[in-house]
Amino acid sequence: MKKLIWAIIAVVIVGGIGFVGIKEYLNVYRSDTAYAVVPATPKKTVTRDSNGKKVTDSQGRQEYSYDYTFKWVTTDGQTRTVGFEQSSANPTPLAPGSYVKADVSKTRVTKGPFSVNAKDVPAKVLQQLK
Predict the structure, then answer these.
(1) Which residue in 30, 22, 32, 130 sits closest to 80, CA to CA?
(2) Is there a smaller number of Cβ atoms within 10 Å at the N or the C end of the chain?
């Protein structure tokens, strides 16, 4: 009887961990194609890690960042506000007012952003972006 109770407890624990893991995966990594208009260029800042330490590249050069906040519109019309940090030793800011395309989850940009022409943005998405 004790073995059965422990087996049930183990199944409940493993199932709970699996549920939380799948939910996290879907929020963070499952992404949709989305488009955005590049906002005004943010201030260029020194890149810092999660401990506040300055970040350098593999050659020891200080890295700098542009921290953007984009209002994304997915191809099915959903909107998401997700940030993106562009960083390198000499980052080039995105052109304000231009269009970008990326794969965006609920919490992060998973691929991109890439510059696109307005003609490459789906018409219904372009209407929402204007």
Answers:
(1) 32
(2) N
